Amino acid sequence: MNKHKIFAIAFAFAFFAAAKAQKYSEIYNSLPDKTLDQAYSILMEYQRANPHWANTYLQLGMICEKKLIETDPLRDIQTAQYWADNAKLFFDTFGVFYSEGDARTNSEFYQNLDIPASGGRIQDADIKTFVAKHQRFCKNFRDSVTMAYQALEESKGYYNKCIGTFKSICDNYGNLNDMLLRHNATLKNILDTLGSDIDHCVEAFARYKKTLEAYPIRDYRQTYEFKPIETFRLDGLTNSDFYMDRFSMWDYRKWIDDVNQTLATDILPLRQRIDDINRQYEQGKQEYENNSPFAAGAQEAYDELFIFQLGKYDNNSLVRELFSYLDDRRQLMLMAHDSLALPFDTSAVLLNRKMRHIYRFSEQLGETEKALEAVGNSLTPDRIARFSEFFNKNYGGTQGLEKYVSTETAFLDKIFSEVLANFASYTRNVERQRDKPAYSVRGKGSSVPLWVVKENDLPTLKGPYITTHIYYNLQGNPEYVAGTKKNAGNVAFVAKIDEKNATIWLAELRNTEQIYNMSVNGSGCVLAAKQNGQSAIVYMNQGGKEIRKISSNENVPAVVDYDELANITYVAYNGADGGTKLCRIDEVNVWTVVLKSFERIENIIEVADGILVVGYNKGRIVCGRINNDGSIGKVSNIGFAGLTLDRIFRASAQDICLFTRDAQDKLQLTIVSDKGEVKITSIRQ
Amino acid sequence: MNFLCRKVRLMASMFSILLCFETYAADISGTFDKVGTWENVVDFSINRSENHLVMTLVNAAGRTMLYESFFSGSQWSEAEPIGIINRHAGDTASVGGAFMSDNERRLYFHANYPGGAGGFDIYYSDKQPEGWSEPQLLDGINTAENETYPALIPGDETIYFLKHQKNNDPKIEKKDADKMSIYTSDRDPHGTWKEPQPVDNVINSGYMQDVTVASDARTVYYTIRSERKETTQMMFARLLWSNSWLLPSSLTQNESGYDFYSPRYAGKWLYFVHANNKKQLRQGRIARMRMTGKESMPRTVVTEKGNIQTLASHKPIAADVTVYNPTTLKVLGRYQSDQWEGGYDLTNTSGSQYIVDVRNPDYSFASYMLDYRNSSKPEMPDVIELFDTVQLSVSVYDSEIFRPLDGEVIAVRTSDKSVFHAQAHADGKYLLALPLGSNYDIAATAKGFAENKFLFKLEGDIVFSYFERNLPLEPFKRDIKVNVCDVETKKPLAAHVFFDNRNREEECIIEPSQMINGQAVVKLRDNDQYDMTVDGVDGYAFHNGIIDLKKQNTDEIAVELVPLKINASLQLYNINFATGSAEIMPDSYFELDRVVQLMHDNPDLIIEISAHTDNVGNADYNIILSERRAQSVVNYIVESGIPQSRLQSKGYGMSKPLVPNDSEENRAINRRVEFVVLATKNIQQ
């Protein structure tokens, strides 16, 4: 640029400077009467027109500094930064346009600024010092408020994040126990993040406080206190105003620590224990299926302490229902492994014991099935979710559990079938033993066959007596024997045998074509027979004397039962044309009922206030209750057509066990109540 | 040279913004499109979608009124008068200055209805299904002077308007005395308008004709007529922070001689009114022109739409939606959801973060974050469901055995003691429906258990509508002292005592090691029945009994154990038979199994089972009955695995009563089964 142009510019500046000074004085003099905003406006206007006038910038800089101080920097950081930046700009620009000697030349325009004078009057150096000081002030102020604000903003930002995270936790879990039980890797990460965020919040706030200590900002002196999170889904969800002198923060850190503590001391050990218990049950099942000694299954897997530890967190637990079922199943398997359930015995002494054992087994089976049903009814998503890892790993999750109920039902059926099969083998062994020809020892009566004589036994039969009915006592020994006498016309016999198989007495019954049924009681025996072409009920005492007889014109009396305590006799007549009849007789015939549901009656069992009648109808076993007044109660079909009645065991005053066989000789059990209702059955349709 | 260059650079940095604004202004003459066919438009408001217009039209009498038109895709509809506004005070008032809120749910305008604050005042009307509502005076803004041309930022936190302030200062020229200026006001934290202040003089530098504010809440458009009263200029200014503005600039150059008014942006168009005369009468046509420069356009905003419904019935609900600065919690915008459709719109500046609170005083509270810092589409709930009642599910269970309890759960409101009864809805679960805004004492009771309660606080901000709580109840228990001794010598014995609760799954056990001098204390539940079994003492029989704490007011149980020596007799409890029968009832098995166990534990023991009757019936009958019953018991024991040789049975009939048969109670005592030791290895003196 040549010196002419510089001169022209300098002249223009000088000219303008004179003109500016004159007009500037008006503005300068009006400043005391203006607000800061007004003063700023008019100075900015002047600056637009007169950009080289240095004093404008100094005045503007001071106004910006005052605006900066006026601003609440923590509530309006951008405004504060704006004024600080503007102040810096104006102070810098002042320095650019300030001419040496201006302190003297335009001294009147520096009087409103309280510039300390080093001599008697303000010098250039004084002004520069003054500006430098205010530049430093504005810079430090800006830096410190920025630092403080950033720390506060960071702290609040983390706190807002904590609230959001905590809300999402509350969204996913209905209560604290639910959260603890369903704790997994995902939740752990969320809790770790929450913990980290609250720690950062606290640390950032501490940094903020430290900044305030070094650079106090207005009256800001906030402190906080932690509020405990006591109620899940109520606490921990609301925000806090970090600008209040005293505010509270939810104590997420303590809450997380408490959660982790509970996890470590209670939940994880509980999960481990559940795994261990389940493993023990499964091992027991394996041992059972492998026919192993069944050591694991013999031990009780859990105690009351475990129930307490589980119930503390899961008071409605699927695990408890499952283990309750597994424990019942364990008991069942133990019973199935009992020596009484094995097939290898042949001694008839054990017959009743085995039947008693099977009855107890079936009661246990009923309990086990109920427990399994309870498991099935407890399969809800929330209960499964509380121990999802356990159920997924061991049971295939929800779908697996639903299938599990079916597979376990089949397993229970299998155990039942195995026990019955073993009993069937045993009974066949006993029958084979009993079918072996043997004779009573001749005692006070003649020797009689101690087996039911069949057609093909006749050629080799010793003695005149053909045994058709045998009553075995509790020890499995024959106690009463009845039948016919061969080549004697219409003569039947009944004999009593002692425990050494010797005949105690033998009584012959003349004019008796056949004995159809024999019922034994404490006082002797009662025979259903045909005498002189009529139906006859013959009562014999323990000494072999006939003490009473009831005759009737009915057809063949198929079954007789005598209640010696009540002195009541029940007689069933199976008739093809007249239907099956049942009569109740004490001294006289009290009543006769026709049982249309029965084609043939096989057995009569006394129960409370009535009897149960077991027979057949259209090839199917039927069981029905007859009340004392002759009215017919519940009649139940047992299984399907083709089953045959094997034996009946009177388990108690309220239950009878009906053992039946199918065409494949498979033994089934049905327990019928005294009301005629089927309680348990192994028969599957 | 360097000094000069530095000056130039600084000055350039100061003025670059201004320069860039000034070069933006485009020549308006002949470059615009006409909008609609109306010729008498005074001012207007248009939505961002450019399909909804509310405009002020002037009639021949000079009265101004509001009209509405919609764009169908090809043309604008006929302008329909908004009757409810225009005729609010009859047919004399003038209405104008229409400003539609950003969500188009509220219409602000000025009117000179009688009964206002004086002159023209600012009113608003809300959108309803059937149209606009009756006008409402805007509180806190209007004075006796004229307030016109209202414009509010989205969220209604800041208002701009023209205020006609009479100035009686004689120094002020007449032409300036009636000058309209732009005023602004913000709401305080309570939502009340602060004292309106004029905006900076750099804006209020002439005769203001109108003002509006864009959706970004920062860009203000206005029309100004200079002091020389040439044609109007359309201007814009941008708020930086607080009351700090970027210097205003012209939107266009106007050399046409016609006036242009009411600039506003919609889409990428600048809409305005083009006066159709040169007489400075304010009426003309709506026009628009495309602006290419970006500086005059409002900053990009994002509008999020949401919906608020009631949880129970999914009906729309009016709620206050407040947007906050997440750090300072300064209110940035107040919105309201539409009470008929539940919808609300939030207009925010992208790149920032916000907290959004949703409140209705009678309903719950909702809050969420909108974070645009890293995403242009942050997560936001589509539908917020508010509720006025929470569901509290209380699980009531036994605190020891963790089984559900039948009981009662009530909630008592602490403020007025109103009582709410829970509905039972699953095993042990009770459901309460509790209105918000109060605290409740929740209490659960069940017979035999201590009450448990907790305070449930529903005052304050509630976020979740469903809660679950567990209320375990402690059973009432009684200390029972158990004394065990030898029946003859009274020598204390340390025994195993087992209590099995008949009413629930509970067992209590006293181990021999816990007994001191044959004594121990056990806590049993009031009102429950227990089967008590005492055994485990070598050489002694067991003892069974029933402890009925409902009937017995006892706190001490004395147990005398019978030593297993010859002729020692032990009564068996709970051996029941069917009436008039020797068949054992199943509930007898518990006791009989004890006998079986005793026989197993003492393999040398030989016992007699004896049965006794009362004196009802004849002696012979009772002898037989008791003999049969004794035999039944023996049969059961044999069936349980004890050899017959170790058992004898005997019936004594009524020959050995324990007490006189003079009452049913005594007769029941006499009806008993006992066992007597016949032989044992352990001979006791």
The number of domains of chain B: 5
Q: Which sheet architecture does the biggest sheet of chain A show? A: 4 strands, antiparallel
Structural class by SSE content of chain A: alpha+beta
Q: From the alpha carbons, calculate the radius of gyration of chain B and give it in angstroms.
A: 48 Å
Mean pLDDT metric of chain B:
88
CATH superfamily of the largest domain in chain B: TolB, C-terminal domain
Beta-strand level of the residues of chain B, as a percent range?
35-45%
Description:
The complex is a heterodimer of chains A (685) and B (685). Chain A contains 16 helices and 22 strands. Chain A has 685 residues and is α+β, with helices and mostly antiparallel strands. Among the domains of chain A are: 16-148; 150-257, no CATH class. In chain A, strands 3-4-5-6 form a 4-stranded antiparallel beta sheet, with no helix packed on it. Chain A has a 4-stranded antiparallel beta sheet with strand order 7-8-9-10, with no helix packed on it. In chain A, strands 11-12-13-14 form a 4-stranded antiparallel beta sheet, with no helix packed on it. In chain A, a hairpin with a 2-residue loop joins strand 7 (512-521) and strand 8 (524-531). In chain A, helix 4 runs antiparallel to helix 6 (124-172) and helix 13 (351-377) runs antiparallel to helix 16. Chain B is mainly β and 685 residues long. Chain B has 5 domains: 24-290, TolB, C-terminal domain (Neuraminidase), CATH 2.120.10.30; 301-386, Immunoglobulins (Immunoglobulin-like, Sandwich); 389-473, Immunoglobulin-like (Sandwich); 476-562, Immunoglobulins (Immunoglobulin-like), CATH 2.60.40; 564-685, OmpA-like domain (60s Ribosomal Protein L30, Chain: A), CATH 3.30.1330.60. Helices cover 10% and strands 44% of the residues of chain B. Chain B contains 6 helices and 50 strands. In chain B, the strands form 13 sheets. In chain B, strands 8, 9, 10, 11 and 12 form a 5-stranded antiparallel beta sheet that branches. Chain B has a 4-stranded antiparallel beta sheet with strand order 2-24-23-22, with no helix packed on it. Chain B has a 4-stranded antiparallel beta sheet with strand order 3-4-5-6. In chain B, strand 22 (260-266) and strand 23 form a beta hairpin. The termini of chain B are far apart. Residues 1-26 of chain B have low confidence and may be disordered. The chains are: A alpha+beta (685), B mainly beta (685). At the A-B interface, helix 2, helix 4, helix 6, helix 11 and helix 13 of A face helix 1, strand 30, strand 39 and helix 5 of B.
